[in-house]
Amino acid sequence: MEALTERIGEPYAPVTFNWEIVGWGTEAAKAEAKEAHSLCDPTYADQLIGGYMHAESNQYTVKRRSPLSVSAMRPLHPLLGGLESNKENLTFDRTSHPEQHVVKVYTSKRQQEIPEEELREWLRSNRRILPNRIWVPDQVRATGLFVYDIAIDLRTLFCVALNPYEPELRPDVEQKMREAGWIESRNAFGKCLVCPKERREQIIEALAHALIHWRITTNQARTFSPMETLALAISEDANQITYAIRGELREDVSSSQPRAVPKIDETARAEVYITPVCSAYITGVIGSADALEQAEESLLQKMMAFDYEHTA
Known about the structure:
- This protein is α+β, with helices and mostly antiparallel strands.
- The protein has one domain.
- The protein is built from seven helices and 19 strands.
- It has helices at residues 2-8, 45-50, 116-126, 171-179, 197-212, 238-244, 291-305; strands at 15-22, 30-33, 37-38, 52-54, 62-64, 68-70, 74-75, 81-93, 102-107, 133-144, 146-147, 150-152, 159-161, 183-187, 190-194, 231-234, 245-251, 258-264, 271-274.
C-alpha cells in the first residue's frame, strides 16, 4: 500500500488511533491502546484496494472486502524454509506521517474524550507518548525460499457495492463518490458504483508497479532484509501458477534422506519472469535484468483491458 500511494502521489487514508486513560484524574492513571479505526472511504486508493471495516456499537457499520486475496508467505517446500528462535515485535505503524492521522483519547470505558490541553499536560507531567502505532508482539523471523500468491478479482477491483443490508458505504461517502463522478452500474454481485475511467487508469498503473516492486520498510537497521524476488508467474489459472514455481522432492544419495530443490517450470501455461539472482538458487535458469518490468507491463495490460463498467 505504501508503494501504491507513493506512486500515485497521494497520502494514506487517515487512520484514527484510539487510546483509553484508565484511572484518569488519579496518580495511577495509565494509557491503553485500543482498536484503530479506518476512514472507510474508497475514494482513497489504499481503501479501495485494501478494503476496510468499521464495526462499533451504536455506530453505522460498513465493510468492504479487498479485491486482492493475498496469501501468507510460505516455504516453497517444507524442507526449504524454517523459523529463527528469536522473537521480535511488529507494528501497524503510521508514525512517519503523523499529521495525516488522528489520535483520540478517552477516559475509562469511553465515557468522554479528554480535552487536548488537559491531555498534553498529562503527557508532559507523566513523560508519556501516544504514537500512531499498534504493537504486534512475539513474532519470529523466517529463513529460506518463500512463495506467496495474489489473486485479483477484476469484477470488484473498481466496483463498490450498493447493498443496503450489508453496506460498504456510509451515506455521506456514497454521496461524495457520486459527486466525484463515480458511475452507478451493476456487476456480478448486484448494484454498485464504478470508479471513473481516468482514476482507474491512474490506480492501475500504480497497482501494477506496487505488486511487482513491493517492499518492507523498517525503522530499525538491524531488522532489514532485501528479500529479493527470484521469479514471478502470471496466469488466469491458479493451478498453472503453482506448477510454474514449486519445490520438488528428490532422494539424497549420500544420506538416503529426501531433499527438496526449487523448480521453475516454463512449460506451465503461465507467463514466467525470472530475475538474474534466481541462478544463485536454481541451477540452469537464465534470468533477465528487465524481468520485473516485463511482469509489470503484463499486469498493467490485463487490468486495463477489463470492462469494469459492464461486468454483470
